[in-house]
Amino acid sequence: MSPTVFRESGYRFFFFSREESRPHVHVYCSDGEAKFWLDPELELARNYRLSKVQLKEVEKIIERHYDELKAAWNSFFGS
Where are the domains of the chain? Predict the structure, then answer.
C-alpha cells in the first residue's frame, strides 16, 4: 500500500506503508523518482533519474506542503 498525499506539477507525493519509521516522502514522475527525509530536516535521501532542476522544484513543493506531509505521516503511521 502506498497512500498518495497529493499530486502537483506532474509529481506524485506518497508514502510506502511498510518501510522505515523515520518520516520521509517518496516523489514520482514519468522521468524518475526520489525520496526525501522530513526529519530532522528536509533532505534528499535518494534520487533515481531526476535532474537537479527537478529536485529543486520538488524540494520547493515539499517545503510549501511540509506541514501537510508531516500531518499525513502522523495520521497514517501515528506520531
Answer: 4-77
Residue 12 burial by CB count (10 A; 0-12/13-18/19+): exposed, middle or buried?
Answer: middle
- Residues 15 and 36: beta-carbon distance below 8 Å: no
Phi and psi of 58, rounded to 5°?
-60, -45
Averaged pLDDT of the chain: 95
Position 1 confidence tier, pLDDT thresholds 50, 70, 90: confident
The gap between the terminal CA atoms of the chain, to the nearest Å, is: 19
Cα 15 to Cα 2: distance, rounded to the nearest angstrom:
5
